[in-house]
Design brief:
Order of helices and strands: HEEEEHEEHHHHHH
Oligomer: single chain
Distance between the termini: 66 Å
Strand content: 15-25%
Mean pLDDT: 92
Number of domains: 2
Helix content: 55-70%
């Protein structure tokens, strides 16, 4: 029976080869990017087996630049969710690789077919800022929405909604996260005032 490292090397080769045929670039083991709009991360579970839990996220340079300009955390995927939730069963989905070349080739091919069928359309759909804003509202965690919501509404020229989407609970929080958010909000409100 092959060891975990051997299975991971085989999986990396099988998946990378197939994903590159779809136009994905390998950034590091288990992390891929499609153009500048799509991100795929293959979370690994290594409990006596190698199981991949793919996560997908949209990328948007305009959002990243605005977040950066406001001193907010950025440069990560947006509206990230597990691939299985884009599939008909709308539930977590994993793929098991065991170190057997023939069966792992079939598994890798199945994973990549599902990336092509469900993740690529998700990336394409979220190139549009309005769709991206809706995806963020549906799929992002609360802290991410606190930063992304105002920025997306601002970029959509929805100034009133941008202000309304400021997370007052996080803004009032006395933790480091609350302090960082208050700094972001101050810069963001200044940006809104400058644009009027």
């Amino acid at each position: 029976m092959p060891g975990t490292r051997d299975i991971l090397r085989l999986a990396d080769r099988l998946l990378t080869d197939r994903l590159q045929l779809l136009g994905f670039a390998r950034l590091s083991r288990g992390i891929y990017e499609l153009d500048v709009h799509g991100w795929l991360g293959l979370n690994e579970s290594l409990r006596g087996e190698v199981r991949f839990w793919p996560f997908v996220g949209a990328r948007n340079q305009q959002v990243d630049e605005t977040l950066s300009r406001l001193g907010a955390p950025s440069a990560g995927p947006i509206a990230t969710l597990q691939l299985g939730y884009l599939m008909p069963q709308a539930a977590a989905q994993s793929w098991l690789l065991e170190g057997d070349l023939a069966s792992d080739e079939v598994t890798a091919a199945d994973l990549v077919v599902n990336v092509e069928r469900f993740a690529v359309p998700f990336f394409d759909e979220n190139r549009d800022l309005r769709n991206l804003s809706e995806s963020v509202a549906r799929n992002s965690d609360e802290d991410s929405r606190a930063y992304l919501g105002p920025v997306l509404h601002y970029l959509l020229d929805e100034r009133e909604l941008a202000e309304q989407s400021i997370d007052e609970e996080l803004r009032a929080d006395q933790s480091t996260a609350g302090s960082e958010y208050r700094e972001f909000v101050a810069r963001f409100l200044e940006l809104l005032r400058a644009d009027r």
